[in-house]
Specification:
Blueprint: E1 9-10, E2 14-17, H1 24-31, H2 34-37, H3 48-60, E3 69-76, E4 81-90, E5 97-104, H4 113-128, E6 133-139, H5 143-151, E7 155-160, E8 171-177
Parallel strand pairs: 5-6
Antiparallel strand pairs: 1-2, 2-3, 3-4, 4-5, 6-8, 7-8
Helix pairs in contact: 1-3
The structure holds coenzyme A (COA).
Coenzyme A binds near residues 36, 113 and 114.
Length: about 190
């Protein structure tokens, strides 16, 4: 299923939604935070023009197209500002498996907000988009990210060694099958 329109996903504290032009500055700040960028693959520093064109493309991109990354904004509802994002990419062959990646502003970490955002997005991917399986790759030393995935019932499938000379950290592969999703979880 491909949806070009995306209805906002509202949770107790958050809105998970499509990018809008007003997000460019907060998105640029997020990508230039060294603690956020450490475990990610984007160019650092990340220029304001890169941020602006990324936002422009994502504001109009179709949602969840096989083989293409789509980025969702996490907006803090009461602060009305972008505090993080979640990228998704369905596999190009069947589209049934979706890789996810995520980032949260350190000022908002430690409150269960990413778990809250991901729970809403996972429900959307399994129930609306009818995806079968989610995959997340994360550095083994990224303890917060590993804990997050394990709290959301992802299973550790294996650890990859030094496959990328530019990224020597061991990488863990986690997966969640649709039947193992716990929808009623309250972070
Ligand atoms: C990975 C990342 C999103 C985790 O953020 P986080 O805030 O720790 O994750 P959560 O939203 O699940 O919050 C969990 C923490 O909030 C605490 N918490 C407080 N209130 C909570 C609540 N109501 N519900 C759940 N957890 C709560 C938990 O105890 C936990 O803290 P702990 O890890 O010290 O035990 C964040 O560290 C990040 O963006 N890192 C940089 C980017 C990155 O590495 N991305 C992964 C690469 S794919």
């Amino acid at each position: 299923m491909v949806e070009h329109e995306l209805t906002n996903l509202n949770t107790a504290r958050l809105i998970v939604r499509r990018f809008e032009d007003r997000d460019a500055e907060a998105f640029w700040r997020l990508r230039n935070d060294p603690d956020v960028a450490r475990h990610q693959g984007w160019p650092f520093p990340y220029s304001d023009s890169e941020a602006a064109s990324f936002v422009e493309v994502m504001a109009r991109a179709p949602v969840v197209v096989n083989g293409e990354w789509f980025q969702f904004v996490i907006e803090h509802a009461s602060d009305a500002v972008l505090i993080g994002d979640i990228g998704v990419r369905a596999d190009s062959l069947t589209g049934e498996e979706v890789e996810i990646g995520y980032s949260l502003d350190p000022a908002y970490q430690g409150h269960g907000l990413m778990a809250e955002a991901l729970t809403a997005l996972i429900a959307y991917l399994f129930r609306v988009q009818r995806k079968k399986r989610l995959v997340a790759m994360t550095h083994a030393i990224n303890e917060k990210s590993c804990r997050l995935l394990e709290r959301l019932h992802f299973t550790l499938e294996g650890t990859l060694g030094n496959i990328d000379p530019n990224d020597p950290e061991a990488e863990r592969v986690y997966a969640l099958e649709s039947q193992n999703f716990v929808p009623e979880r309250r972070p």
